[in-house]
Design brief:
four-stranded antiparallel β-sheet, 2 helices, 13 strands, 19% helix
Length: 224
């Protein structure tokens, strides 16, 4: 009887090792499968108030230990790869530019020591302000101030009949600012359906149907 128990324990241990190794292989394969989904996924739109919304698919890593391997993933921006460490759980790289074409009124005045005119132009709104002074041999830009306001959010897409995925949405409220490039990765662990744990229930045992307490493999059909 003891020999049979030892054989049963060995079989259970081998099954557990096989499941763990199988999960690691699936996770590695999943990271490769996501590359085509992740690359060139930037979508940008702007509403009537000038607020820009940029969205990008997130490269999701279910096994945190694999994040360090992203340092060798050439699909990531170099700046983002440089910041990855063992303690990283997520990262976002954003490149944006701010430009404006504005027509303003120009004032003309004369300095005390020069008979040539000096031209001054200025502009100010909530997001942008500056002063430009132009003379005979120079054009000077003074007090250039640009205000930017951003909000970034990780969002889950899909579910039920559609495959779940993660999206990073980035809002830029400055109407003069445009998102040029954006990349994101994050650690999102998947709920495990198979595990080894304590079982308490009522079922078929060696003595027939009866309550039992034991240790065994679990497959979760419904999670609470």
């Amino acid at each position: 009887m003891k020999k049979n128990h030892i054989i049963a324990y060995v079989i259970i241990l081998l099954i557990v090792i096989f499941i763990i190794k199988g999960c690691d292989i699936n996770k590695l394969g999943l990271m490769e499968d996501q590359i085509s989904f992740y690359e060139d996924s930037l979508r940008v739109s702007r509403d009537s108030e000038g607020t820009e919304t940029a969205k990008v698919n997130v490269l999701t890593i279910s096994n945190k230990s694999l994040i360090k391997d992203l340092k060798s993933f050439k699909g990531l921006n170099n700046k983002l790869r440089e910041e990855i460490s063992k303690k990283s759980v997520s990262g976002v790289y954003i490149s944006s530019s701010t430009s404006a074409s504005i027509v303003t009124k120009t004032d003309t005045f004369y300095s005390n020591c020069d008979t040539l005119p000096v031209y001054e132009s200025s502009y100010k709104d909530k997001w942008l302000s500056y002063i430009i002074v132009a003379g005979k041999d120079s054009i000077n830009l003074y007090q250039l101030t640009v205000l930017n306001q951003y909000v970034g959010m990780f969002k889950e897409k899909g579910g039920f009949l559609k495959k779940k995925s993660i999206e990073f949405a980035f809002k830029s409220y400055n109407p003069y600012t445009t998102t040029e490039e954006m990349q994101a990765f994050s650690h999102f662990p998947k709920p495990k359906k198979i595990g080894l744990g304590l079982n308490v229930g009522y079922g078929l045992t060696s003595t027939g149907l009866s309550p039992y307490v034991g240790i065994g493999l679990n497959y979760n059909l419904i999670r609470f």
